[in-house]
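F.,

This is the one I mentioned.
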Protein backbone atom coordinates (compact mmCIF):
# COMPACT_ATOMS: atom_id res chain seq x y z
CA UNK A 1 0.00 0.00 0.00
CA UNK A 2 1.58 3.26 -1.16
CA UNK A 3 1.43 5.94 1.55
CA UNK A 4 0.73 9.45 0.20
CA UNK A 5 2.24 12.82 1.06
CA UNK A 6 -0.34 15.55 1.74
CA UNK A 7 0.53 19.19 1.02
CA UNK A 8 -1.10 22.03 2.97
CA UNK A 9 -0.48 25.77 3.22
CA UNK A 10 1.75 25.64 6.32
CA UNK A 11 2.53 21.97 6.60
CA UNK A 12 3.34 18.82 4.71
CA UNK A 13 2.20 15.44 5.99
CA UNK A 14 4.57 12.73 4.84
CA UNK A 15 4.77 9.06 5.73
CA UNK A 16 6.65 8.37 8.97
CA UNK A 17 10.13 6.97 8.35
CA UNK A 18 12.72 5.11 10.40
CA UNK A 19 14.77 8.30 10.84
CA UNK A 20 11.84 9.93 12.68
CA UNK A 21 12.48 7.73 15.74
CA UNK A 22 14.65 10.32 17.56
CA UNK A 23 11.85 12.91 17.42
CA UNK A 24 9.23 10.29 18.30
CA UNK A 25 11.32 9.32 21.32
CA UNK A 26 11.41 13.00 22.32
CA UNK A 27 7.63 13.27 21.92
CA UNK A 28 7.03 10.16 24.04
CA UNK A 29 9.24 11.58 26.81
CA UNK A 30 6.83 14.50 27.35
CA UNK A 31 4.76 13.87 30.51
CA UNK A 32 2.10 16.48 29.66
CA UNK A 33 1.65 15.14 26.12
CA UNK A 34 1.31 11.62 27.46
CA UNK A 35 -1.23 12.78 30.05
CA UNK A 36 -3.36 14.65 27.50
CA UNK A 37 -3.38 11.72 25.06
CA UNK A 38 -3.89 9.00 27.65
CA UNK A 39 -0.55 7.36 26.92
CA UNK A 40 0.35 5.22 29.91
CA UNK A 41 2.55 2.61 28.25
CA UNK A 42 6.31 2.93 28.47
CA UNK A 43 8.48 2.09 25.51
CA UNK A 44 12.11 1.15 25.01
CA UNK A 45 14.24 2.97 22.50
CA UNK A 46 14.37 -0.22 20.44
CA UNK A 47 10.55 -0.40 20.35
CA UNK A 48 10.31 3.20 19.14
CA UNK A 49 12.96 2.58 16.47
CA UNK A 50 11.14 -0.55 15.25
CA UNK A 51 7.76 1.22 15.29
CA UNK A 52 9.01 4.14 13.19
CA UNK A 53 10.68 1.77 10.72
CA UNK A 54 7.51 -0.31 10.32
CA UNK A 55 5.03 2.49 9.51
CA UNK A 56 5.67 2.47 5.74
CA UNK A 57 4.39 -1.09 5.39
CA UNK A 58 1.70 -1.09 8.10
CA UNK A 59 -1.65 -2.16 6.65
CA UNK A 60 -5.00 -0.57 7.46
CA UNK A 61 -3.48 2.70 8.65
CA UNK A 62 -1.75 5.86 7.51
CA UNK A 63 0.89 7.30 9.86
CA UNK A 64 1.89 10.82 8.87
CA UNK A 65 4.74 12.96 10.17
CA UNK A 66 3.78 16.63 10.52
CA UNK A 67 6.46 18.87 8.96
CA UNK A 68 6.37 22.63 8.39
CA UNK A 69 8.04 25.65 6.84
CA UNK A 70 9.93 23.71 4.20
CA UNK A 71 11.71 21.58 6.78
CA UNK A 72 11.49 17.79 6.86
CA UNK A 73 11.74 17.70 10.68
CA UNK A 74 9.18 15.55 12.52
CA UNK A 75 7.03 17.96 14.59
CA UNK A 76 4.34 15.45 15.51
CA UNK A 77 2.22 12.70 14.10
CA UNK A 78 -1.29 12.36 12.82
CA UNK A 79 -2.64 8.89 12.24
CA UNK A 80 -5.65 7.52 10.42
CA UNK A 81 -5.92 3.97 11.76
CA UNK A 82 -8.46 1.16 12.05
CA UNK A 83 -9.40 1.88 8.44
CA UNK A 84 -12.40 -0.31 7.58
CA UNK A 85 -13.06 -0.22 3.84
CA UNK A 86 -16.35 -2.13 4.16
CA UNK A 87 -17.91 0.08 6.84
CA UNK A 88 -15.97 3.04 5.34
CA UNK A 89 -14.77 4.30 8.71
CA UNK A 90 -11.52 5.03 10.50
CA UNK A 91 -10.09 6.40 13.73
CA UNK A 92 -7.95 9.54 13.93
CA UNK A 93 -5.33 10.53 16.47
CA UNK A 94 -2.93 13.44 16.75
CA UNK A 95 0.12 14.09 18.92
CA UNK A 96 2.52 17.02 18.62
CA UNK A 97 5.94 17.57 20.17
CA UNK A 98 5.74 20.14 23.00
CA UNK A 99 7.41 23.01 21.12
CA UNK A 100 4.97 22.76 18.22
CA UNK A 101 1.62 22.76 19.98
CA UNK A 102 -0.71 25.72 19.58
CA UNK A 103 0.67 26.84 16.20
CA UNK A 104 -2.17 25.61 13.99
CA UNK A 105 -0.26 22.61 12.67
CA UNK A 106 -2.71 20.15 14.23
CA UNK A 107 -5.73 21.97 12.80
CA UNK A 108 -4.32 22.00 9.29
CA UNK A 109 -3.11 18.41 9.65
CA UNK A 110 -6.55 17.17 10.65
CA UNK A 111 -8.14 19.04 7.75
CA UNK A 112 -5.66 17.47 5.32
CA UNK A 113 -6.23 13.98 6.71
CA UNK A 114 -10.02 14.41 6.59
CA UNK A 115 -9.75 15.44 2.94
CA UNK A 116 -7.68 12.32 2.27
CA UNK A 117 -10.11 10.14 4.25
CA UNK A 118 -13.28 11.36 2.55
CA UNK A 119 -12.03 12.29 -0.94
CA UNK A 120 -9.08 9.89 -1.30
CA UNK A 121 -10.26 6.78 0.53
CA UNK A 122 -14.02 7.27 0.14
CA UNK A 123 -14.71 6.95 3.85
CA UNK A 124 -18.07 7.86 5.39
CA UNK A 125 -17.04 8.38 9.03
CA UNK A 126 -13.95 9.36 11.02
CA UNK A 127 -14.00 9.11 14.81
CA UNK A 128 -11.68 9.86 17.69
CA UNK A 129 -11.45 9.86 21.47
CA UNK A 130 -10.47 12.99 23.34
CA UNK A 131 -9.83 12.96 27.06
CA UNK A 132 -12.16 15.04 29.24
CA UNK A 133 -9.07 16.74 30.74
CA UNK A 134 -8.04 18.04 27.29
CA UNK A 135 -10.47 20.93 26.73
CA UNK A 136 -8.19 22.58 24.15
CA UNK A 137 -8.19 19.49 21.92
CA UNK A 138 -11.96 19.02 22.30
CA UNK A 139 -12.51 22.63 21.22
CA UNK A 140 -10.18 22.14 18.23
CA UNK A 141 -12.10 19.06 17.09
CA UNK A 142 -15.47 20.80 17.50
CA UNK A 143 -14.23 23.81 15.49
CA UNK A 144 -13.26 21.45 12.65
CA UNK A 145 -16.72 19.87 12.67
CA UNK A 146 -16.49 16.81 14.91
CA UNK A 147 -19.56 16.16 17.03
CA UNK A 148 -19.72 14.62 20.48
CA UNK A 149 -21.38 11.20 20.37
CA UNK A 150 -20.91 10.02 23.89
CA UNK A 151 -18.65 9.44 26.82
CA UNK A 152 -16.81 6.43 28.15
CA UNK A 153 -16.62 7.06 31.86
CA UNK A 154 -13.29 6.63 33.67
CA UNK A 155 -11.77 5.12 30.53
CA UNK A 156 -8.27 6.57 31.05
CA UNK A 157 -5.89 7.10 33.93
CA UNK A 158 -5.04 10.61 35.05
CA UNK A 159 -2.29 10.23 37.61
CA UNK A 160 -3.84 8.46 40.58
CA UNK A 161 -7.35 9.19 39.30
CA UNK A 162 -9.42 8.68 36.21
CA UNK A 163 -10.84 10.71 33.34
CA UNK A 164 -13.50 10.14 30.73
CA UNK A 165 -13.03 9.56 27.02
CA UNK A 166 -15.27 11.77 24.92
CA UNK A 167 -16.18 9.99 21.69
CA UNK A 168 -16.43 12.33 18.70
CA UNK A 169 -16.94 11.81 14.98
CA UNK A 170 -17.43 13.61 11.72
CA UNK A 171 -19.44 12.17 8.84
CA UNK A 172 -18.76 12.69 5.16
CA UNK A 173 -21.69 15.08 4.62
CA UNK A 174 -20.72 17.13 7.71
CA UNK A 175 -17.18 17.42 6.39
CA UNK A 176 -18.42 18.47 2.95
CA UNK A 177 -20.64 21.16 4.52
CA UNK A 178 -17.52 22.78 6.03
CA UNK A 179 -15.67 22.99 2.71
CA UNK A 180 -15.71 26.23 0.72
CA UNK A 181 -16.87 25.70 -2.84
CA UNK A 182 -14.21 26.60 -5.45
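My design for it:
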Amino acid sequence: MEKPTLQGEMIVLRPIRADDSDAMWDMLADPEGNRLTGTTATFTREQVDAWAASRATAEGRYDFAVTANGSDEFLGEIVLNDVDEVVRSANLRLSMRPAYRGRGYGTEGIQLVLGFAFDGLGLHRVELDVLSINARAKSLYENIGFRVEGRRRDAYRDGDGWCDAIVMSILEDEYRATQIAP
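The chain has a mean pLDDT of 94.

Talk soon.
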